[in-house]
Write a structure and sequence with these properties.
Layout (H helix, E strand, L loop, with lengths): L33 H23 L7 H10 L1 H15 L7 H18 L4 H24 L5 H20 L9 H8 L8 E3 L5 E3 H27 L7 H25 L4 H19 L1 H11 L1 H6 L4 H27 L10 H11 L11 H20 L4 H30 L1
Antiparallel strand pairs: 1-2
Length: about 425
């Protein structure tokens, strides 16, 4: 699945001076430099990895059912990656998300299974519990001044212990049908199927959603270009603009058609799409989002500029707790059971997704869509190597190398950008 950001990158941190730019004149003044490579490299790498595994698996990777499996099987990691990228942009880290996912999943199971609380009440309670866990950790980081690494490392142990106590060290299930459907189910075929010639039938609603997304992608890209032209910023050549609009649109429609042929849209895909749009808008259009980048880019300058650093940091961890609870419900619903070992190593997958997706180790850089793309890269690697019958140790080896290369690429592009500026 290919996604496209809904807006341009946030502006520079308060201490950075925006370089003067020549007036835009049909693309003059634009160059594909290290910064451009850094922004678009992740999508190029994703495309190459998909092509590689498509060839190696004889096309099995892109079959309708397998594409659906990749989305559903990695949904909870992608949800965690959305929250994690915000934490990393602000210059922090969260090692507890796997344990929080397990603890909130356990809370949901106890409420819905053991006490027969309706799911419409149990789910909001679980999200509140996740928010309270995030507030607990956010307080120690933001107001008490303990490094997030230490706080969340302690949280990883504490909330794993809480999970064991809540579950009495045993699994609890099964979940109500509605919760299972949210994790594994598909939207109903409201308007039936439409014939696609040799491809067979496909769900009409799914195809309409795909067309709407393509229109949104093209419109957003054009609006961004016109905004840059209005303020005299350099424009990329028209061929590059067309490629950036057409390529993701073609890939997106391919995925949508395949999903429509297999079933309809997975509910978790709709949830992921909504989260991606909401958080992309927050990071690029909202004041809160710009404050996140400012804090990660230069903490002292952000403080002097009037950014309420403690409040922003606190709410980032609250948000991470809520998203961990969402992922916990989805994961438990998918397994139809809340177990004491749920979420193990998920924090590593979420952190890897953020860094592979373009986040900088020092903070201040990253995109929500990049984190989702990074998570999908890990998912494609997992799925592709499983289709090839590769042993687990080989899968871990490849994932580790991909993470190392992603961070090395980030460091290299920074050096190139720094050399060019001098």
């Amino acid at each position: 699945m290919a996604t496209t950001d809904v807006s341009p990158d946030p502006g520079p941190a308060p201490t950075q001076e925006a370089p003067s730019t020549p007036p835009a004149s049909g693309g003059s003044g634009f160059s594909f430099n290290a910064s451009s490579l850094r922004q678009n490299g992740i999508y190029i790498a994703f495309a190459l990895i998909v092509v590689l595994f498509t060839v190696l698996t004889g096309g099995d990777l892109l079959k309708p059912q397998n594409l659906s499996n990749i989305i559903v099987q990695n949904s909870y990691v992608l949800i965690l990656a959305i929250g994690m990228i915000l934490i990393i942009i602000a210059g922090h880290i969260d090692l507890s998300v796997g344990s929080v996912l397990a603890a909130t999943g356990a809370v949901a199971a106890v409420l819905m299974v053991n006490h027969n609380v309706p799911w419409a009440i149990a789910i909001p309670i679980t999200l509140i519990v996740g928010g309270l866990i995030g507030a607990w950790q956010g307080y120690w980081v933001a107001y008490f001044g303990i490094p997030a690494f230490i706080v969340t490392l302690a949280g990883m142990l504490i909330f794993r212990a809480v999970t064991l106590m809540v579950l009495s060290n045993q699994g609890i299930g099964p979940f109500p049908d509605t919760v299972r459907s949210m994790a594994n189910g598909f939207t109903p075929g409201w308007f039936g199927n439409i014939a696609l010639g040799g491809l067979g039938g496909a769900d009409l609603v799914t195809l309409l959603v795909g067309i709407a997304l393509v229109v949104a992608i093209v419109w957003t890209q054009w609006r961004t270009r016109m905004g840059r032209a209005k303020f005299g910023q350099p424009l990329e050549p028209m061929w590059m603009f067309a490629a950036k609009a057409i390529a993701p649109s073609v890939v997106l429609m391919f995925v949508i058609v395949q999903l429509a042929r297999f079933h309809n849209l997975p509910w978790v895909l709709l949830l992921l799409g909504a989260l991606a749009i909401i958080y992309s808008l927050i990071t690029s259009r909202a004041v809160f989002g710009r404050h996140i980048y400012a804090i990660g880019g230069n903490l002292n300058a952000a403080t002097l500029s009037g950014v309420k650093v403690k409040q922003v940091t606190f709410w980032l961890f609250v948000n991470m707790g809520v998203l961990s609870a969402v992922a916990g419900i989805i994961f438990a619903g998918r397994l139809n059971q809340a177990g004491p070992t749920a979420g193990q190593s998920f924090e590593l997958d979420a952190i890897s997704a953020a860094f592979i997706g373009g986040a900088a180790v020092q903070g201040g850089v990253g995109k929500v869509v990049g984190a989702i793309t990074g998570g999908l890269i890990m998912g494609v690697i997992n799925n592709g190597m499983q289709l090839l019958g590769a042993p687990s140790e080989r899968v871990m080896l490849v994932k580790g190398l991909v993470l190392l290369l992603a961070v090395a690429f980030d460091v290299w592009t920074k050096r190139r950008a720094g050399s060019a500026s001098r």
